[in-house]
Amino acid sequence: MKDRAYRIAQKERVIKKRLKLVRRLDTGHVFEDGKTDYEHQLEKANKFGKKHPMDCGNPKCGLCHREKLSGDKKISEKKKLISAEQQLEDIS
Q1: What is the pTM for the complete model shown?
Q2: Model confidence band, residue 1 (pLDDT cutoffs 50, 70, 90)
Q3: How far apart are CA 14 and CA 59, in angstroms?
Q4: 3-20 pLDDT per residue, tens
Q5: Model confidence pLDDT, tens digit, residues 54-73
Q6: Under 8 Å between Cβ of 39 and 29
Q7: HSE-up of 72 (CA within 13 Å, CB side)?
Q8: How many CB atoms neighbour CB 59 within 10 A?
Q9: How far apart are CA 91 and CA 44, in angstroms?
Q10: Is 74 helix (H, G, I), strand (E, B) or coil?
Q11: How many helices and strands, by DSSP H and E, does the chain display?
Q12: Residue 18 near residue 48 (C-beta atoms within 8 A)
């Protein structure tokens, strides 16, 4: 099991990565209080330790969980199938 310091550092890395994503997707819209969406999210940065910024929280949302609901395969699964097919072609 990982020690406490490692878990804390991992959470900080995840938060930093997710804030970078929010900054990249910020439209620059300024709200009534004079802050942009990124500045609002920066105030509540700890929530990104548990929740992805592009996830609305609804497990049946067709926009956030399209692959899960439609039955599509993930990209990694598609790559595995392609590499398995290529291996079969190489053998024969």
Answers
A1: 0.51
A2: low
A3: 21
A4: 888 888 888 888 888 888
A5: 677 787 777 777 777 777 77
A6: no
A7: 9
A8: 10
A9: 54
A10: coil
A11: 4, 0
A12: yes
